[in-house]
Amino acid sequence: MILFHIYNTDFKLSNRRAIKSWITAVLGNYGKKPGDINIIFCDSAYLLEINKKYLQHDYCTDVITFPYTGEKSAKMDGDIFIDVETVRLNAKKYGQTFENEMLRVIIHGILHLAGKDDSTNEQQAEMTNAEDAALRIFKGKQENEI
Fold first, then answer.
1. pLDDT digits over 6-60, tens only?
2. With 0-12 CB in 10 A as exposed, 13-18 as middle and 19+ as buried, what is 22?
3. pTM over 0.85
4. CB count in 10 Å sphere of residue 129
5. Residues 135, 103: contact at Cβ < 8 Å?
6. Is the separation of the CB atoms in 113 and 130 below 8 Å?
7. How far apart are the C-alpha atoms of 88 and 127, rounded to whole Å?
8. What is the full DSSP assignment across the chain?
9. Which tens digits make up the pLDDT trace of 69-84?
10. Closest by alpha carbon to 91, among 77, 101, 106?
């Protein structure tokens, strides 16, 4: 089950059903299916606290993923924390709409659950390609629903 949570931010997620369907489709492309996935939209201060406490990183980031199942599991469980403020800033920085940047960050977390890493430059390039492919799936689903 994919659940969305809002913590200490006024962010409102629209199109939840389409996003859940998209996440399920993307995971399916990796031979995975959603188990218990929580996507928590929060403010910068909260995600910074998590980043310091669990990863020992003293900086803001847009997304942190905590997978609770191994890569070999077919069913993906995990928590994905998304800093809405940093996503908004990054959208401006990269010349994207807020909505597109938010979708990219959501699927970035999902790809981590599916076993994708982005520690090296090569892995980062692979992650970006996977995000782009996933975003094309979402846009295709949206066009088919109109």
1. 999 999 998 899 999 999 999 999 999 999 999 999 999 999 999 999 998 888 8
2. buried
3. yes
4. 10
5. yes
6. no
7. 20
8. -EEEEEESS------HHHHHHHHHHHHHHTT-EEEEEEEEEE-HHHHHHHHHHHH---S--SEEEEE-S-TT-SEEEEEEEEEHHHHHHHHHHTT--HHHHHHHHHHHHHHHHTT---SSHHHHHHHHHHHHHHHHHHHHHHHHH-
9. 987 899 999 999 999 9
10. 101
Task: Write phi, then psi, for 100 (nearest 5 degrees).
Answer: -65, -40
The residue-averaged pLDDT of 130-143 equals 85
Q: Is the pLDDT of residue 142 over 70?
A: no
Question: Cβ(82)–Cβ(40) under 8 Å?
Answer: yes
Q: 44 pairs with which residues across the strands?
A: none
Q: Which two tokens stand for residue 51?
A: 């980043």
- Amino acid 145: pLDDT: 47
